[in-house]
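General statements about sequence and structure are easier to judge against a single worked case. For one protein, we set the task of working out the structure tokens from the amino acid sequence alone. The sequence in question and its structure tokens are set out directly beneath this paragraph.
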Amino acid sequence: MTEAAQLSGKAGEGNAPAPSSGGAVARGLLEDLAAASRILVDQGVFDAAGHFSMRHPAHPERFLMSRSLAPALVSADDIMEFDLAGEACDARGRNGFIERFIHSEVYRRRPDVMAVAHSHSASVIPFGLTGTPMRAMYHNAAFIAAGVDVFDIRDKFGTTDIVINTPAKGAALAEVLGDNSVALLRAHGMIVVGPDVPNTVFRAIFTEVNARLQLQATMLGGPIAALDRDEGRLADAVNIATVGRSWDLWKGRVTR
């Protein structure tokens, strides 16, 4: 891929043909994907930056993601399709996010993941800068009890601009994520993954909330009675089964 194609997301430049599409996607799914970005803005997880994607429902080697756009402005018509090399299937002059390789490489490594969010949430940043691990403060953040590791881009790439703008950097981040639902990026933010769009939105919101609660609990002093791994597994199953209530509320707020 040329440098211009890598930065813009325009596939098919030079002699390389654009990858084939995974097929048409129902309009309702595209609307939900667009709503996910707007929900995360509404809930204070995204700002002018941040991006959200979902795996193609009929083709696991493709994923869907907005063109490079402030998340509050994303609509179904802004959704683009990419292959796992980060190449757009039908760019039509639209630019993809520079950091789409976060998404492509997670989908490549984790066949169970159906959606990915990346944010620069301010509350999580301290946990990526210090030796204090993020822990699950309550049941809504139960998925955190499985562990949250920190990706330090310096470990493999030395001094950089911090941006995950190549497949190699995306693959290194996906490796640190491992089998967990959340990973932090030192001096950058977080990625969150899940089994579908609503649950990934839920996890992104409550990772941000959990970070604030942990900071507050730490200020009170003494040991913190966080959820352990088994409690987290049990509580997360309940959250996954009941996420529709939260999703309907949040989606209603951004689609009125």
In short: The chain has one domain: 3-255.
